[in-house]
Design brief:
- 29% of the residues lie in helices and 29% in strands.
- A seven-stranded mixed β-sheet has the order 3-2-1-4-5-7-6.
- It has six helices and seven strands.
- Helix 4 links the parallel strand 4 and strand 5.
- It has 174 residues and is of the alpha/beta class.
- It starts with a helix and ends with a strand.
Length: 174
């Protein structure tokens, strides 16, 4: 993933925000594989998770992305990650608008969500897979990358990072 994001953000210095960062594993992956001048930040609803990323040296905020005042971070980030998050929020468009304001002009937003068109969903949905994401708001039931763009962005993707078990997509924000 580091190589993919380095290709999308070919800068030696960049600010990266992982929204829904959990314990910071993705930030760790990027730190190990992206330019040393990149700076990493995270937001998570869990105070414990944010404390963990802070111990790793990352800047972090805890709270619900929908209610956090992030105006201080507007126009700050070159890359925003929202992996396994969009399907859990009540108002995806409002969250995407908030994240867009956090990006610099030309910044990249990467969204990853479970893909209900994937083979593992069809195979496991009655027993396991679907249960991990219930309940979720009706508005956020996103099936695949195409539907994600049609419903939320209403524009074609900047880069389709592949659709398999997850719908992955990135978009350059102007």
């Amino acid at each position: 993933k580091g190589r993919t994001y380095t290709n999308l953000v070919p800068a030696q210095q960049a600010d990266v925000i992982d929204i829904g960062c959990g314990d910071g594993r993705m930030l760790d992956v990027l730190k190990d594989s992206c330019p040393t001048g990149w700076r990493y930040h995270g937001i998570d609803w869990s105070d414990r998770a944010v404390e963990r990323i802070r111990r790793k040296g990352y800047e972090g905020l805890s709270g619900d992305i929908a209610s956090l005042d992030l105006t201080e971070w507007n126009g700050r980030f070159d890359l925003a990650l929202m992996h396994q998050l969009i399907e859990h929020v009540r108002d995806p468009r409002a969250i995407l608008s908030k994240v867009r304001r956090m990006l610099k002009p030309g910044g990249v937003l990467s969204v990853e969500t479970p893909d209900i068109d994937a083979w593992d969903f069809r195979l496991l949905s009655r027993r396991y897979w679907a249960g991990y994401h219930i309940p979720r708001p009706r508005e956020a039931r996103i099936a695949n990358a195409r539907r994600l763009h049609r419903r939320l962005f209403r524009v074609p993707p900047y880069a389709d990072l592949g659709v398999g078990r997850m719908a992955r997509t990135a978009r350059r924000v102007e």
